[in-house]
Write a structure and sequence with these properties.
By secondary structure, the protein is mainly β. It has two helices and 15 strands. The protein has a single domain, classed as Sandwich (Jelly Rolls). Strands 1, 3, 4, 6, 11, 12, 13 and 15 form an eight-stranded antiparallel sheet that branches. 37% of the residues are buried.
Length: 273
């Protein structure tokens, strides 16, 4: 009887340590640190030894790298600036009706940077759209949560800027349902911070909050306690950030830039009770 009690105490203690480890999981962060070696910095965090940057330099090498590090006077620090050019760029010389410059995690990334069934992941990042930002009427994704393997053609979630009257920023689920929509003008020339929490499952949970950095005012907020965050035949989910836009109506667009910084990916938001 005493031995069984001892085993039970050990088991409870082990579970306690596991929950504590999850509760205190360390976030993986990516911050600009100054000009030069930008792709190398991104890769060292998101996919060490591999390539986490998708760019159009196969067709537009003369511009140089389409992500650089610049000093931002509002934040008083270096940040990443992503560039997309209407007449010069495409999607990696694979698709020519769209343009892409994005960073990502993927199957070569460490396990703690991809989301598998049952896990909870918190993503955070800051971004600033340029003044006068001109989105496509089809799509201009600045963030995606994508699935890998199986039915993975469409993103699970996107933050999509869209031309309209007025222009909008849309949070879209499963490439179809607009679960939140706000005026794009709220983001022009303003630094904001996004926090996205995903519990991975057929009946998962999801939340997205975007706040202005200057005064912490909430600009966009959405949450669901029962929403599909992975499909039955997917292996895992992963994030992407950047500019991914349609060229269906190039006259609507201009050469564009977005600034990003303070990327954070953290698995495990289990709290001890």
């Amino acid at each position: 009887m005493k031995r069984n009690t001892s085993y039970k105490v050990c088991f409870v203690f082990a579970v306690h340590l596991l929950l504590l480890a999850k509760a205190n999981a360390q976030a993986v962060t990516l911050n600009a640190d100054g000009p030069g070696n930008t792709y190398e910095l991104i890769n060292s965090v998101l996919a060490p030894g591999f390539d986490a940057v998708e760019n159009p330099e196969c067709v537009h090498p003369s511009f140089g790298r389409h992500i650089v590090e610049v000093f931002d006077t509002d934040l008083n620090q270096y940040v990443f600036e992503f560039y997309s050019h209407v007449a010069k760029d495409n999607d990696r010389c694979i698709n020519f009706d769209r343009q892409r410059v994005e960073i990502k995690t993927y199957d070569q990334s460490p396990p703690n940077l991809i989301g598998t069934l049952g896990e909870t992941i918190t993503y955070k990042w800051k971004f600033r759209l340029a003044d006068g930002f001109r989105p496509s009427s089809s799509f201009t994704h600045i963030h995606q949560i994508k699935a890998v393997k199986g039915d993975d053609a469409n993103p699970l979630f996107t933050l999509t800027a869209r031309k309209g009257n007025p222009d909008k920023l849309e949070l879209i689920h499963n490439n179809v349902t607009k679960v939140a929509t706000v005026d794009l003008s709220l983001f022009a020339g303003v630094w904001v911070e996004a926090t996205e929490i995903v519990k991975v499952g057929a009946h998962g949970t999801y939340s997205m909050t975007i706040k202005r950095v200057s005064d912490q005012a909430t600009i966009l907020s959405y949450s669901s306690s029962d929403i599909m965050t992975i499909r039955p035949d997917n292996d895992f989910i992963r994030p992407k950030w950047g500019i991914y836009r349609s060229l269906n109506n190039p006259a609507d667009l201009r050469d564009e830039s977005i600034r990003f910084n303070a990327f954070s990916i953290e698995e495990g938001t289990v709290l001890l009770r």
